[in-house]
Write a structure and sequence with these properties.
single chain; about 260 residues; alpha/beta; BirA Bifunctional Protein, domain 2; eight-stranded mixed β-sheet; three-stranded mixed β-sheet; about 25% strand
């Protein structure tokens, strides 16, 4: 059985700090293959942009400024996401023997682990098939439609993910909404399609309020089963937080990325 580091945060964090922690973990991959699994939440609504997205094309920046909604840029790809009332996961690894040598192989294996976690919450989820061309090529938000190997229930996306990969090292993080606010998502992204978004949430599918600590444990158990992993539950140390803060100041200090 392999051992992974597991990081659980007691309190929600600001968007730039969340992104800095993920980047710190990714930059720290070196030497022997290793894996860290992290779960976190957001202190207030935050829009995250894919690494190559032009902010003005996908986000209503004036609305975000007026309503104190943070905007951050991920180092991963993918489409714009509104992080609000959700559980976010991150997998940071250099273990190619476990996850495979490609983005596609690791993405699918992680999705399969998340499905096992959802099963522990009584939900029957599945891998999504290919997204329509207008979603793949357009500026729709991430949760407007499931994409290939993302996770759906009844044709509606429940977890959206994105990955950054350099050789065998990768960071993948993703969003599991506790509840969804389609009106707010439309407002922050200026999504004008008359079609409803194909999204759902944990509470909508469970039919009751979510026990967040239990949901996090269920997702972690899904990873443990899928990868035959045991966890070393080890929070960030003081020195690690200091390094995270430096990354936050250097790479994530702009609250409204203009590119």
């Amino acid at each position: 059985m392999r051992t992974w580091r597991l990081i659980l945060h007691d309190d929600p964090l600001p968007g730039p700090l969340n992104m800095a922690v993920d980047e710190f973990l990714f930059l720290g991959l070196a030497g022997e293959p290793s894996t860290t699994l992290r779960f976190y939440r957001w202190v207030r609504p935050t829009v995250s942009l894919g690494a190559k997205q032009a902010a003005a094309a996908v986000v209503d920046l004036d609305f975000c400024r007026r309503n104190r909604i943070d905007v951050v840029r991920r180092t991963t790809g993918g489409k714009v996401v509104l992080h609000h009332e959700e559980i976010t996961y991150a997998v940071v690894s250099s273990d190619e023997a476990v996850f495979g040598p490609t983005l596609g192989s690791s993405y699918r294996r992680i999705s399969e682990a998340l499905i096992l976690g959802l099963e522990r919450l009584g939900l029957r989820a599945a891998l999504a098939g290919p997204a329509p061309a207008e979603y793949a090529r357009g500026t729709m938000p991430c949760f407007s439609h499931p994409a290939r190997d993302e996770i759906e229930i009844g044709g509606r996306k429940i977890i959206g993910s994105a990955q950054r990969r350099i050789g065998s090292r990768f960071l993948q993080h993703g969003s599991l909404p506790l509840r969804h606010d389609e009106n707010l998502l439309r407002a922050v992204t200026s999504y004008e399609s008359g079609e409803g978004m194909r999204m759902t949430s944990l509470e909508a599918e469970m039919g009751r309020a979510a026990d967040v600590p239990r949901a996090v444990e269920a997702l972690a158990e899904g990873f443990a089963e899928a990868f035959a992993a045991a966890f070393d539950r080890r929070p960030l140390s003081g020195d690690e937080w200091a390094a995270v803060r430096r990354i936050e100041a250097e790479a994530f200090s702009d609250p409204l990325p203009s590119r």
